Amino acid sequence: MNRRTLLLALSSSLALGGCLRPDFRTDQLDATTTGSIGARYTLSAGDRLRVIVFGQDNLSNIYAVDGDGSIAMPLIGLVKVGGQSTAQAARTVEAKLASGFVREPHVTVEVDAYRPFYILGEVTNSGQYPYVNGMAVETAVAIAAGFGPRAARDYAVLTREGRGGLVSGIVPMTYPVRPGDTIVVKERFF
């Protein structure tokens, strides 16, 4: 009788343990975030840039950052901008133009469209979606047409590029999303 009671208590505690929300682990993700997207945002593959060369309308255009982190511009060819801020990219383009193509170039670089984010798991339409500035995980779920029927609705697993490679963490639904992030909505136990 005592053994039966012990087994019943153990099995019920294990079953109820599956209902608990896991602890949020955002420490490493927070280290990759510098606040809102702005001066510290680094360019990467998938970003679309508006490059304005003052006085040179034929050079001013929208350029896509390729997989190598470069943009292809007339006259100067490939310009490596991956890992740079928009201000650093403007200085890089200015330096290339000044080396024999344009006298005293003045360049501005702006992000025209951020790289997409990805959402997988227990959502209605998983896939790749355009990034919207200021979005949170719950916004990403709404963009993916909502939760699936078995979705864990109070947390998700978020993966993003950090300095040493990919960083993952369990995050609440209000956690901010950045361009290039991958969100996985897990299945709940019950």
Entry keywords:
wza like fold, alpha+beta, 10 strands, 4 helices, 190 residues, Outer membrane lipoprotein wza fold like, 3-stranded antiparallel β-sheet, 2 domains
Q: What do you see in this structure?
A:
The protein has 190 residues and is α+β, with helices and mostly antiparallel strands. It folds into two domains: 20-34 and 115-185, Outer membrane lipoprotein wza domain like (Outer membrane lipoprotein wza fold like), CATH 3.10.560; 48-113, 2-Layer Sandwich (wza like fold), CATH 3.30.1950. The chain has four helices and ten strands, in the order ααββββαβββαβββ. It has helices at 2-17, 27-32, 86-98, 137-143; strands at residues 48-53, 61-64, 70-73, 77-80, 107-113, 117-121, 127-129, 155-162, 165-172, 182-185. β8 and β9 (165-172) form a beta hairpin. The longest helix has 16 residues, at 2-17. The radius of gyration is 23 Å and the shape is elongated. It starts with a helix and ends in a 5-residue tail after the last strand.
